[in-house]
What we know:
single chain; about 425 residues; 3 helices; Alternate signal-mediated exported protein; signal
Amino acid sequence: MKKNSKKKKLMAAAAGLALIAAISGTFAWITSQDQRINKVSSSAVVDNSVTINEEWEPKPLVAGTEATKKVSISNTGTASVFVRVSYEEVLKHLTDKGNVKYAPTTGTGAVVDAKYVYEANDSGLDKHMPVDTLVTGYVEATNVTGLESSTKLFVKGGRIVDGVTGAISYNDEAKVVHEYTTGKYQVMNATVSVPNKDTETSNDAKDWTYTVSDSQYGYYEDGYKHTVANWAKSSLEDEAGSVTGNALLGTSGNRHGVTYNYTTTALDLVNIPGESVTTNTAQIPTGAGQKAVQADTNATGLGKSEINVNYTAAVIGQAGLAAATDNWIYNSEDGWFYYTQPLKNGVTTAELLDKLVFGSAMGKEYTNASYDLVVKMEAIQATEEALTDSTGWKLDITSADKPITKAIYDKLTQ
Length: 414
C-alpha cells in the first residue's frame, strides 16, 4: 500500500505516535490508503492496518446480469481512524459505439486498412479493428475462384432430394471470412455464386465449385478508446509516488494481484482528466438501490448508463446523518463516501456496495467493452485537526457553500 512520504504508516502505535510535529509548526497526520481494481471482462491482502475488504465475482459485461461486489473497510490497528472511499473508472469501448462498417480494400469506396493485419496483444486503439465471426457448423469449400489473400469460403447444407416425389430443393449457406490469424476470422460481405448448381453431381455444398467477388471487410472504425473518471481528488500520493489527485490513474503496476496500466500512453490519452465530482442524482445514493457510474454515462464515452452500482442500506442521505452510526454518506461537494463514525481498532464497517448490475438495455455500444472500477480508500487518524489541517484532508468547514462537508465534520467530531 502506498503512503505519503511525509506521513507514517498506520500501525499498532502508542498514543505518543498520534501525531508528529513538523518543523514548520504544522502537523503530519498518520494516514493510509488502499485501492482495489475490479475488472469486468481478490482474497483480502492485508498490507497495512486499514484495508479494503472485498468479495468480487468477475463476470463479463452481459446485459441483464450482475456481479457480486461487496466492499467494506477494516481497521486492524489499535488507533481509531476516519475513513472515506471513492472511485476511479476506466472504460475501454468501441469508438464508433458498436457500429459495423464494410469496405473493399481496392476500387470504389476502398478502405485500405479495412482488412485487419494481425498484431499480437493489439490494443486496438485509434485504428480500424476487425468484426470477429465464427465458422462453427460450416465446412471449408476448396473449389473456389475469386478469393482474396487469406480469405476462405465456408459452406453448409446442399441439395435436398425428396425420396418420394424426387423434388429438389436447396438449403445451402455460404460464408466468406478473412482468417487474420489461425482460427480467428473477420466477417466479410461478398457475392458468392455456384455457376453450375443444378448440374453439380454431389448433393453436399462443400463439393461444389464456387465463384467469389465483390469482397468487403467488416470493421469497427477507429477501433477502441478509453473513457476514464476520477470521482474525487486524492489527498495522498498516487501509486508512482506523486501527488496528482489520482490514486491509480496515470500509473501502472499491480494491486492485490491485479496488473494494470493506466498511463496516458497505454490509455492513448493526452492527459488524465482531473476529478469529476458528480452532482447527478442518478449517480448519488441516499439509500439502498442501484445508481449509475460515470464512465459509460459520460458524453465522450457511450452516453448510456447501463453499468450500475448496487448500494446497501448502510448508505444514507444528509437527512439521516444525525442518527447515523455504522453508515456511509456521499459528499457531493468533494466526491468521497464518508464512514459516519470513527472506525475503531478491530472493527469492520458495514458494506458500502454489494454488486455491479449490467442493465438489460445494454446494446451494441458495449460490444467488446471492458470496465475497471478502482475502489480507493483513505484513512486518517480520528482527530478533529486531522480533518481540516493542510497535511490532513483539508476539509473546508467554513464556506457557506459546503454545508454537507460541515455536517459530516460535525458528525465525525461530535
